[in-house]
Write a structure and sequence with these properties.
By secondary structure, the chain is of the alpha/beta class. It is about 35% helix and about 30% strand.
């Protein structure tokens, strides 16, 4: 018997900013368990009543778990889906975790047109997104992949500009960087393994519809 047993629905949740809001949704729908926590030392957390298993993964790994069927479904940011380019179904925009992938430069390097930045070095956690964007606008750049604080790169001369994800832009401002171009807005998405979506369609479709209704309810409350 494998983790992804037909009797269970296996849900992958991402560590980090999206976890807590995902947990709010799952609690509201009765899927979560009292011990479902980002800090849990359990590798697999099970809700026997609902026949649901949870795994908590590193953000960038989550689409891989879903693509290969180790998880049937998952919740992950659109930015990660664009960067990882895994073969999964994107079923629903959950409308939370709003951020933007942007291009930013030090204030001293601001130019009038995007083309004026051609052939510079770009530091980013999102090399595929960055490469695809600059290719789409006909600009050749040198992409430098980093995993840590992207804002540091221009400060120490590693790169002249960055492509990064921002929520409020406060970190950019604190490091004397200015946004010059938005590449893509991103929110949390509900995704599914292709085979699981067919084999466990009723359960996945039910959860999708429940999530959709809850998303609409939260949106309605936010507008009041």
């Amino acid at each position: 018997m494998t983790l992804n047993d037909m009797n269970y629905l296996t849900i992958a949740l991402p560590k980090g900013k999206l976890f807590e809001k995902s947990l709010v949704y799952l609690n509201k729908l009765g899927y979560a368990t009292p011990d479902l926590s980002e800090k849990s030392r359990k590798l697999v957390i099970t809700n026997e009543e609902k026949k649901v298993k949870f795994i908590i993964t590193k953000t960038t790994d989550l689409p891989t778990y879903v693509e290969y069927g180790a998880a049937d479904i998952g919740i992950i940011g659109k930015d990660v889906l664009l960067e990882e380019q895994k073969d999964v179904y994107e079923l629903l925009d959950l409308k939370f975790g709003f951020c933007r992938v942007v291009v930013a430069v030090p204030q001293a390097l601001k130019q009038e047109k995007l083309n004026d930045y051609a052939h510079l070095r770009v530091a980013t956690k999102y090399p595929k997104i960055a490469e695809n964007f600059f290719h789409s606008v006909g600009i050749q750049m040198e992409i430098i992949k980093l995993n840590g604080s992207i804002e540091l790169a221009p400060m120490v001369g590693l790169a002249e500009m960055i492509v990064d994800i921002v929520e409020t832009g406060q970190t950019l401002r604190e490091n004397n960087l200015i946004e010059i171009q938005e590449i893509y807005p991103t929110t949390a998405r509900f995704i599914a393994n292709r085979a699981s979506f067919k084999m466990k369609f009723e359960r996945i479709e039910t959860l999708k519809n429940e999530l959709k209704a809850l998303t609409e309810e939260f949106e309605s409350e936010a507008k009041k």
